[in-house]
Amino acid sequence: MEKDCLKEILAYIDDHIREKITLGELARLAGYSPFYFSRLFSESMGMPVTGYIRIRKLQYAASSLMEGKKVLEVSLLYAFDSQEGFSRAFKALFGSTPGTVKRHMTSYHVPAYPLPDHQPVRRQTMEKQTETTLRENLQQLVCEALSESLSEAEEGHCTEISLRVMEDGGLEITDNGRGIPLSGNSQADRAILDKILSGRPVSNLEYSQMGDFSHMGMQAVNSLCESLSLCVWRDGLRFRQDYVRGIPQHEIISCPCDHPSGTRILMRPDRAIFGELHFSCEQLREWLDNGPDAFRQVRVEIYTAS
Questions:
Q1: What's 79's domain CATH number?
Q2: Boundary residue ending a domain (123, 152, 172)
Q3: pTM to 2 decimals?
Q4: Is residue 269 classed as helix, strand or coil in its secondary structure?
Q5: CATH at 271
Q6: Which residue has the higher pLDDT, 301 or 50?
Q7: At residue 300, what are phi and psi to the nearest 5 degrees?
Q8: Residues 116 and 165 both lie in one domain
Q9: Distance CA 258, CA 235 (A)
Q10: Where does a domain end: 65, 90, 123?
């Protein structure tokens, strides 16, 4: 599909996002038969046009929830057949119910999908992504998640790091550093964690456009995990926060404890993006052996959960 034509189609979808948009009307606008238009759109965007419209409606719906609109109001606003159908589709994309997102997500901006500079456009679907590329990106998730432990080690505040590969494909990272500076003040602690960790769900289409997401920080990592649990021990307190695709699931939980200071992150990469690929102890060891010098200053233990 020609770039100008595709640009017009995407703009039309956004302009009519609160209406029921049919394949027929989009095909007429593009000047193709519905079958041929559907094929060209899938080749250009890497997904069916109906799937793209559904994702856009849900993204705009999330933005409306952030503006304070009620769930029922939003479901009607974006032409869903029922509140139940809307909530089901919303949870499938965001991993959380509209109510949870409304209560705990701090902000959401509908992402733009930049068009490529060349034709023909043939974006890879996630099924076509090579296993090597996905494994490299899994490794990058580990690199970003270890960045804070690395900083603590470089400053002499962390002497031990453990990486535990979970049977379900998750990874647990634990260190004995100082821990994120949380204090028990719920408002201040929420602001700190929001700045460091709060992300937003990333669809396959957005992921295909991210390219190299190194140095994008823990917000990007959290957004690419279907679940992430953070535990911090500091100043006689234990703090916990759980996320689903970057969205906090509750207020920060804190309680007294006598545990030494440190941080634990339990992360499960999003299977909608990475499939059933699991972390590998062997690959993690190889990466650390060739990784930053600071890791050689601490005891790093890698093992598989029994």
A1: 1.10.10.60
A2: 123
A3: 0.78
A4: strand
A5: 3.30.565.10
A6: 50
A7: -110, 120
A8: no
A9: 9
A10: 123
For the purposes of burial, counting CB atoms within 10 Å of the CB of 23, is it exposed (0-12), middle (13-18) or buried (19 or more)? middle
Residue 51 sits at φ, ψ, to 5 deg, of -65, -40
Which 3-state string (H, E, C) describes 187-210?
HHHHHHHHHHCCCCCCCHHHHHHH
Domain span at 91: 3-123
132 shares a domain with 118: no
CA gap 274, 171 in Å, rounded: 14
- d(C-alpha 139, C-alpha 5), whole Å: 38
Overall average pLDDT of the 183-190 stretch: 92
CB 273 within 8 A of CB 204: yes
With CA atoms as reference, report the closest residue to 87 among 104, 100, 106, 105.
Answer: 100
Please give the pLDDT value at position 114.
Answer: 60
Shared domain for 235 and 252, answered yes or no, is: yes
CA distance 58 to 50: 12
Same domain, 111 and 54: yes
Average pLDDT, stretch 212-237?
87
Give the CA-trace dihedral at 169, 288, 242, 231, to 10 degrees: 130
Residues 7 and 50 in one domain: yes
For residue 120, cis peptide bond before it (omega within 30 degrees of 0): yes
